[in-house]
Structure formats: structure tokens, C-alpha cells
Amino acid sequence: MPVTDFNIDIATYIEHTLLKPSAVPEEVKQICQEAWQYNFPSVCIYPTSVTQAKELLHDKKPNVCTVIGFPTGAVTSAVKLFEAQEAVENGATELDVVVNLGWVKLQESSKIYREIAQICSETGQTVKAILETNVLTDEEKRLAGEICLDAGVAYLKTSTGWFGGATVEDVKLLAEITKGQIGIKASGGIRTYQQAIALIHAGATRLGTSHGVDLLRQQSESIK
To answer: CA-CA distance, 63 to 57, in Å (whole number)?
Structure first.
């Protein structure tokens, strides 16, 4: 049977996302308007769109989230820190930072910790560590997750969506790591209401998706 839960208001979980490289200002304007209209907690856009999004949402509830080191995480720590600081100066209050996956594979724990901890401490904003779970083993997911938790992140995030999407199994694993201490953002490939509810039941506290409005429509239709 399809997974449903009419007691869950999925709008309160959705980070309305626009991360296609060809996005133009009119599209940014649209997702900001939709985020405000549907009471989504945030919009997630590229750093070049942060100033516009901040201007559109300056007196409204949705936060402005952007991505750092996206989508590979393979830029230097100095570049990530500068990108994060500039994004905050431009109005971002949430930063989704891709961890260095090569360092995870090599178990370079101290390097991962220093990079993420510095971004957390020097920006003072909500940091979500993107683990890219689709390219990691369970052991590597645990290593990266535990390091980022110790470094001060506010969320562990499953994926960028570029190399595969969020799964219930990965969200459950992140829930084991976090033990309710911080949030979990499931992201990538979330296109149906049933998927959204299953991920929430698994432990997701945020859903990164470009299909937020459609998810609400599906929820409404399932209630009828």
C-alpha cells in the first residue's frame, strides 16, 4: 500500500530548490514566491542568486539557503570558506556544504573536521554537510557523518542529487549517527508524496526538492 500520513504537513519540511545551472532570475523569483505562498522553510539556490533571493524574501519567513563546493566538494578549503563567507555577506543564512569525498575515502578525518568546523565557526550560520551518500560505503557514511557532527553542523544531508538521490536506508543510517542531536536533510530525486512521507518517517527533518509544489498537490489529492 502507498505510504501516507495525513497528520504530517510536508510543506514545513520542504526546501524549495532550484539548482539547475541554466536557472535565470525569473525562475528564482518564482520559487521565492512559491516558498512564501506555501510556507516552505527555505529556498535553496546557487550563490549567484543569493542576493536576489534575499531581496525577495527579506521580510518573509523562508530562509535563503545556498550550496558551497557544489556539486563535487573537491575545491580547496580556502575556496569553500570564501564562498561560504561571501554567501553570508550576500544574505544566506543556511549553507549546504559538500564534504571532500576524496578525504572521506582516504579517512582523512582531521582535514574533513578542520574544513567543516572552520566554515561553521567563521560564518555562524546553519551549516548542512552534504555527504553524497550514493558514492560512499556505509562505513564511509558513518565516518563522514560523525566527523561533521563533531565539527558543529546543524544537519547531515544525503546528497547533491547529481550522483543519485536520497533513500530511506541512508536516512535511517544518518538517524543512527545523529541520534536526534541535529537535523537530517534528504535531497535528490524526491518527486512523490509517498517518497516524502517515507523519508520523513525514516528520520528526515528537511526535504530538498524542486518538486515541492507538486508534492503538496499530491498530498491534497491523496486526502480526497
So the answer is: 8
Cell numbers placing 54: 534575499
Cβ neighbours, 10 Å, residue 61: 11
Quote the CA–CA distance of 169 and 5 in Å, as a whole number: 19
Give the max Cα distance, the chain: 52
**Contact at 8 Å (CB) between 176 and 149?**
no
pTM of the model: 0.95
Identify the helix (H) or strand (E) that includes residue 207: strand 206-209
Phi, psi of 100 (to 5 degrees): -75, 105
CB 205 within 8 Å of CB 183: yes
Helix (H, G, I), strand (E, B) or coil at 97: strand
Show which residues are catalytic: 96, 157, 185
pLDDT at 3: 55
- CA neighbor of 204 nearest in space, from 159, 164, 161: 159
Segment holding 89, helix H or strand E? helix 77-89
